[in-house]
Amino acid sequence: NSGNVTLQKVDFHAEGGQAKKMKVLVYFGEHARELVSPESGLNFAQHLCGMYSETKEKATSLLQFADVRMIPVVNPTGHDMVMLGGNLCHRTNSKGVDLNRNWDDHWRPNKRADTNSGIAPFSEHETQLLRDDAMKYKPHVFLTIHSGTLGLFTPYAFAQSSANPSSLLYKHSGPSFLSMQSRMESDDSSKARIKEMINLLDGINPKYCNCEAGAAGDVLPYLSPGTSMDYMFDKLGTDYAFAFEIYDGASSGGYKYNSKDVKLIQTGVLQRRSDFLLVEETQEPEDIFEQSNDQAEQCFEMFNPETKTEYDATMDNWSKAYLELFEGLISIEKSHGMFKMN
Fold first, then answer.
1. pLDDT higher for 115 or 39?
2. Are residues 143 and 27 in contact, defined by beta-carbon separation less than 8 angstroms?
């Protein structure tokens, strides 16, 4: 704990198995209104504990090669504002800071609603606690879970992998963009890791998401400086880092795009609805604490499943996706010689 913030962590470890195990770190609930994220964490914990016969063997096998640490609710003060205060549109912590813009990796000052990055990197108790824990744990794999769209993303979120001088993102980033591009394009080790991650996602995607997959800065219509994913990969040296978006209330598929959704996306009818597109950041920070009843309902529908049937299907789909992701990473690490095979 730090200040008035207490974060819980849950470790999953099995005796036996490999002497050296892959360390996995998973964050849920960075953004308060994305209630499906911590719910997904709870369901994944149940799978890891062998409570589902369909995945028990796979979960048991995973824990022979990996230790898994979860932070079930990264943003507890914001979560309380949603759950106890009924502010279903609230995204940030209770101070109005977006924790996923407060990490010290290409952090940029931003006081606009929903993407307020704080007064400085790691200005928030939550990110300080998370940083210190991650530095001690030294994960090989990092995954953070979000909602509001569907997508499977890798670093980097702060920039595009190739420069396009005519793009809005290029113009918005200013002169520093070229130096960032130069470093990214010359880092062969990072490029190789990102390629491995994207190849793995390409295999998982059709089964669980049917969505956009790839480097966040290339796929998304906005840049995200100061994210946990980029910090883990860029600064902490985590081998593999991902951000999954697991629910899109604007789609008919919800937790996985169906053929109808794909057609609507291709024709531009179904677009990524975001409160933090670069061209739409107009609110001041204090505005995020105000919402109408209609807005509250729309926010809940956008970020979270509404029915038990849809909720159950979302939980089942994504817990299996996490298991398959980590299983795939173990296979990659076996090829790299991390594990001594009997």
1. 39
2. yes
